[in-house]
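for the writeup, i need someone to sanity check this before i put it in the appendix. the sequnce is what the collaborator sent (i think, or maybe the updated version? ugh). structure was predicted straight from it, no edits. if anything looks off just tell me and ill rerun, i have time this weekend
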Amino acid sequence: MTVIEPGRLFRDQDGRPVQLHGAGVLFIDGRFWAWGEDKRSGGTFSAIACYSSPDLAGWRYEGDALSAGTGDLAPGRVVERPKVLRHPASGRYVMYLHIDSADYADARVGFAVGDHPAGPYEYRGSVRPLGRLSRDIGVHAEGDAGYLLSEDRDHGLHLYRLTDDWLGVDSLVSTTLADHGRHGYESPALVHAGGLYYLFGSDLTGWATNDNRYATAPALAGPWSPWRLFAPEGSATYDSQISAIVTVHGTERTSHVYLGDRWLPDRLADSPPVWLPLHIGGGRARLEWHDRWSVDPRTGSITSHHAPHRAHQEEST
């Protein structure tokens, strides 16, 4: 089993840096499938890349799930945060995207569908959910219900229920604000564990990292607890920004993996992943640094290949 080294780039089967920036991940038929922003053209859109892995560590490039074209997907546009759900009734894969202009004035969510995890995906257009701004996004599914998490800095972090086909927004479920009350958190992720919902997000500091936080609630409609740290204060979440959380349902335990980005604004394609075990339970979430670690997708067990410590590793490519 290959190991994950947070702060170091993954390489694909041909030795190329894996473009899983702003990634989303699903476990499908015994493999992890992941979609990320291809940043080799910088901050504007070129493609959404797709990869697969048996263990979240060794990645195989499966092709571009979505490529540059016209309209929302034209070169020079912003297409970020690809997240994918599998619609339970149709079996089709639905991709959700932050769609924007180069100056981030459009603030929309886009939808695309495909018959295979790797695509190709058919782009279905974009909207402002119920007329509200939408930038960084996350997704969540429970049975037949799908949900969209959407950052609207004018009014907060919104949680929406999707339409029955998961290709539109049906209704607003809840809205949370940052503790200072000025805005919501961005780059949201949601986990349900032990009868509680855990909502994670990052403060609005652009490419710079910050101390990400989480809140909990007994129901999606709330009430949500105050926001709390889940990494050591001042670590800037080990110099990373949350992108998603992967839940690994094993035969021995259920584990959670934090997917974060350490953005390098002048070299976005080389921005390394910071992926770490995330301990969730009893209303608490805690992220701990490991130099090298692995997860067994069969059992759900996580193995540290060095003793955990508090200091974080500098970026290395």
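Confidence is low (pLDDT under 50) at residues 307-317. The chain has one domain: 21-304.
thx in advance!!
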